Amino acid sequence: MRAHLALRFGPASLVASARVVATTFAAATLLVILVAADLGTGDVEIGLLAALRALLVAEDPNALLVREFRLPQTTVAVLVGAALGLSGALTQTFARNPLASPDILGVTRGAALAAVVVIVGATPGGYGAGLVEGTMQRVGLMPAALAGGLASAGLLWILGWRRGLDPRRLVLVGIAVGAVLTALTQWLLVVASVEDAASAQVWLFGTLNGRGWDHALPVAVVLVVVFPLALLLVRHLNTIQLGDDAARGLGVRLQRVQALTLLAAVLLAAAAVSAVGPLDFVAFAVPQIALRLTGGSRPPLVASMVCGACLVVAADLVCRSVLPAGVPAGVVTAAVGAPYLIWLLIRANRRNSV
């Protein structure tokens, strides 16, 4: 029998298995270590403990370096990883399919396409010159990515609907939608000027270089708004795991729960994409890693957030300490996620052939 812990926060209470709590605590401890290592790594190397001391003590000699120059980028990495981890856990849970992550379903591709339109069109010499100015490029990226993510999710919903949402059809439609959106993005890069195309291409790899508080704030706001909604949906998502008919029989308003879950996932993915670009495979791999660590029946939401933050901060740390300067973090996350996707497909193929 699995041990469970009852967690109480004022009038609210939550029951979680001891393994989930222990795994989440261990992942949070790893995250603190990774954050300290990330803050201590750069052109001027300082130790892990020195980075933590500089973060906590204002009079420390390294406080300016850590707080002003490195902390904003590391904070963006933590928030983006948490947002992508939660987004992937929500989509995989409601679709009951480990392939149903925002990047596989084409949601992040829609957000990326809209953001590239802004990036390419915001410079005087770029595609659609004069449509948007430099200020629009800075403040318009987030709304554009959000609109693109919502539009692609709406298209996915319409094309995947046939007397309900079938998980297999949803994944197949999502792959097709993602392919079309990727083709449109590539077409935009072809017709843009060389400078604009190069700028957009770097962003499309998913990079944390030069990210500051202005990039962190929108992601933090979305997390603060969406995370409580995700916790409220947990009970219904657990019921949906029994099947659509069983969930309806137990009083779950299936379409409303699916719509709210997809909306929350799209908001999280779009916010993350607008901040750093599409970090491929984070939303796909992290919830399954958290699921295998916790041993439950569906991806755990909080553990997925912490594991996602660990992966993105670790990617930033590798880029700062191992890889040549300027290599985007998306290269590292793709190197981790792509082999995992191949392994998952081979494993599913063997299971179906038995």
UniProtKB/TrEMBL annotation:
Subcellular localization: Cell membrane
SUPFAM superfamilies for this protein: ABC transporter involved in vitamin B12 uptake, BtuC (SSF81345)
GO cellular component: plasma membrane
GO MF annotations, alphabetized: transmembrane transporter activity
GO biological process: siderophore-iron import into cell
Bilayer-spanning residue ranges: 12-37, 76-95, 107-127, 139-159, 171-195, 215-238, 259-281, 301-319, 326-346
Record flagged with keyword DNA-binding: no
One Pfam family hit: FecCD
Topology class, membrane: Multi-pass membrane protein
Gene3D superfamilies: ABC transporter involved in vitamin B12 uptake, BtuC (1.10.3470.10)
Keyword terms of this UniProt record: Cell membrane, Membrane, Transmembrane, Transmembrane helix, Transport
InterPro entries named among the record's database cross-references: ABC_BtuC-like (IPR037294), ABC_transptr_permease_BtuC (IPR000522)
UniProt-listed CDD domains: TM_ABC_iron-siderophores_like
Main localization of the protein described in the UniProt heading: membrane
Signal peptide (from-to): none
Family per record: Belongs to the binding-protein-dependent transport system permease family. FecCD subfamily.
Full protein name: Iron ABC transporter permease
Classification lineage: Bacteria, Bacillati, Actinomycetota, Actinomycetes, Micromonosporales
